[in-house]
Amino acid sequence: MTQNRMDTRPDESDVTQPRLGTVGMLRWAWRQLTSMRTALFLLLLLAIGAVPGSIWPQRNIDAGRVADYLARHRSTGPWLDRLGFFDVYSSPWFAAIYLLLFVSLVGCVVPRSKIHWRAMRAQPPPAPQHLERLPEHGQVEVDGTPEEALAVAREVLRGRGLASRLRPGGRYRLRSEGLSLSAESGYLRESGNLLFHTALIVVIIAIAVGHLFGWRGDRILVTGKSFANTISAYDTFDPGPWVDTEGLSPFTVAVDRLDVTFEERSTGAQRGAPRDFTAYTRTQASPDAPRVSQILKVNGPLKFGGTSVFLLGNGYAPVITVRDGAGRVLMHEATPFLPQDANYKSVGAIKVTSASPKQLGLFGFFLPSEYIDEASGPSSFFPGLKNPALALGVYEGELYPQGRPQSVYTLSTEKMAQLKNSKGDPLRLLLRPGQSTQLPGGRGSVTFDGVQRWAGLSIRYDPGKALALGGAVAALAGLIASLMIRRRRVFIRVRPLQGRTVVSIGGLAKGEDPGLGSILEDLLTTIAQLSDTKPSRTESSRTESSRTESSRTESSRNGSSETESSRN
After folding, report:
1. What is the mean pLDDT of the chain?
2. Under DSSP, is residue 431 helix (H, G, I), strand (E, B) or coil?
3. Which of 21, 83, 328, 505 is deepest in the core (most CB within 10 A)?
4. Which residues face 420 on adjacent strands?
5. What phi, psi does 162 have (nearest 5°)?
6. Cα–Cα distance between 230 and 228 in angstroms, integer?
7. What domains does the chain contain, in order, with CATH numbers?
C-alpha cells in the first residue's frame, strides 16, 4: 500500500514553479522597501553612517586637518578619502541612505493613510452572537422594554457622562442592528501613529532644506575689530550646495568690548569657573543702515533676518611686534591663542612670512596667570589676567612646505629648525607685557606689547529649523497619542426575560488594555442607573489563562437555559 502511494506521487522535476518576472520582482522590492522593518533599519543605518563624521576631520570644516591627516597616513588616508570619510554628509552613500529612508517612510505612510481613512468611514462590525466568549463581558437586568434599554445604551455610548472616562480614545462610533449595538473607539491611536511617521518625513525634509540652502560660518574676532558677512571674512565657512554665496545678507558686526567674569571667591573645583560672557557690539544690517549698539551674550544671539550670530567662546590675543635686524617692523598685531584647559592655558603660533633670509615662526603658550610647574613647566593657575606671560619657541625655515594648508594656530616644523641660544640649547622665550628680547644672530627682536580678548562668533542660517521644530513637536504628539490611546470595540445586545430586559455587553481591545474590564463595568452601572433600576443580577467574567474547561461548559449551559426561557 505504501509503495503504491509513493509511486503515484508526482515527480518534483515535473512541477512548474511560478515566476515573478520583472514586474513581480519590482513589486516585491517595493514592498520590502516600504515595510516598517526596512524603515527602522535605514534609520539605524543613517545613525551609523554619521559616526565617521565625528571621528575623522571633515574637509568642509577644517581642510588643514584633513591635509595633515592625509600627510601622516599615506596608506590608509587615500582610501578613506575615496570612500568619502572626509566628506561624510556630502558623500553619495550617505545621500543614498537618506533618500532611501525618505522613500521608505513615504511608501509606508501613504497606503496606511488610505486604509485608515476607509476604516474611519466604515461602520463597526455587527455584534457577535455569543458575547460571553469575548475577553471581557458581563450582563445586567433592567426594567423596561428591550427597545428602551437599547436607546439608553445608545445614549451612554454617544458620550453622555462617559466621554471623560473613555479619553483619550474619544467618542464611540455606533452601529445599530436589530436588538444589538456595536461601538468602536480609539481611531486616534492609528492617527497618532501616522502623525508620528509623517512628522519624521517633515523633519527629514527640513534637514534637507537646511543642508541645501543653509550655511554656517565661524570667526574669531579680536576686540576693537569688525567683520562683514562675506566669505573672505570667515575663518571657516560651510555653505550648502544651493547657497548663493554672492547673495549673503550684507551686515557687519564690530566687537568693542568683551567682559568675562570668573569665580574668584570659591575654592576647589568651582574656583575659576566662568560666570558671565558679555560682548558689547556695534552692528549694521546693511551698508546704508545706521550703526546700532547691541549686547551679545551666550544665550542672546544677534538677529539679522534669518541669520543668527552666536557667542560661543572667548580667549586671549597677545599683541606681538616682530622687528628685523635693522629695526623695521615685520609684524604687529593681536594673535588669538586657543585655550587648552579651564585655566585658559592657550596655544598659538606667530608666523612672520616677510622675514629674511628665512621665514620665522614662533610657537608656544599664553599663560594668563603664569607659574612654573616642576613637571610640565610654565602653566596657568587662574583663567583671569593675574600674571600674564608668553612662553615661545622660535623656528626659522619654510612656513608652508609644498603649499599645504594648515591651521593658523599650529606651526609645521617639517621644513624649519629651532633657533638656539649662546649655549647651544633650544631658544625659549618667556615674556611679560612690555618686555622685549633680541633674537640670536642679528635676526631682530620680539616684543610682547599687551593682551586683548577675542570673541568666538558662530554665524548660522538655517531655513529649515522652524519646519524641523514643528515636525518634532508633531512627532512627539503623535507618539504620545499612539502610546496612550486604546483601540476598543464594545458590543451590546438586549433581550426580554420574564417581563424585564437583559442587557449583555462584551468588549475586546487591539493589544493590551488593562482598563477594558473596568470600562465595561462602568457601562453596565450607567445603563442600569439611567434605566431607573439597580442591577439585580450581574454576571461578569474575564478570560484568563487559568480558566478550566468545566467552567466554560457551565457558562454555556446557563446561556442555553436563559435562551430557552426567553423563547417560552
Report:
1. 83
2. strand
3. 505
4. 426
5. -120, -20
6. 6
7. 21-120 (no CATH), 125-186+486-567 (3.30.160.110), 210-314+458-473 (no CATH), 318-453 (no CATH)
List, in sequence order, every beta strand (DSSP E) within 324-426: 329-334, 338-339, 346-352, 359-367, 370-373, 377-380, 389-397, 416-418
The amino acid present at 223, given as its one-letter code, is T
Distance from the Cα of residue 540 to its chain's centroid: 49
Neighbouring C-beta atoms of residue 490, cutoff 10 Å: 27
Q: What angle do CA 361, 366, 369 make, to 5 degrees?
A: 160
Instruction: Report angle CA 399, 404, 410 to the nearest 5 degrees.
Output: 55
CA atoms within 13 A on the CB side of 417: 5
Three-state SS annotation for 446-496: EEEEEEEEEEEEEEEECCCHHHHHHHHHHHHHHHHHHHHCCCEEEEEEEEE
Long-range contacts of 258-262 (CB under 8 A, 24+ apart): 258/223, 258/314, 258/453, 258/454, 258/455, 260/314, 260/453, 262/382, 262/383, 262/384
User: First and final CA of the chain: distance in angstroms?
Assistant: 57
Q: Which of 323, 281, 338 is nearest to 304 (CA)?
A: 281
Helix axes 187-213, 92-121, angle to 10 degrees: 150
What pLDDT is stored for residue 546 in this prediction?
Answer: 32
DSSP element (H, E) containing 156:
helix 146-157
The rounded distance, in Å, linking the Cα atoms of 221 and 226 is: 7
Q: Looking at residues 520-535, what average pLDDT do you find?
A: 76
The mean pLDDT value for 309-328 works out to 92
Q: Which residue has the cell 457622562?
A: 161
| Cβ atoms 256, 280 nearer than 8 A | yes
153: which 3 cell numbers? 445604551
Q: Grid coordinates in use for 365?
A: 603658550
* Alpha-carbon span 163 to 174, nearest angstrom: 14
Q: Which amino acid is at 97?
A: I
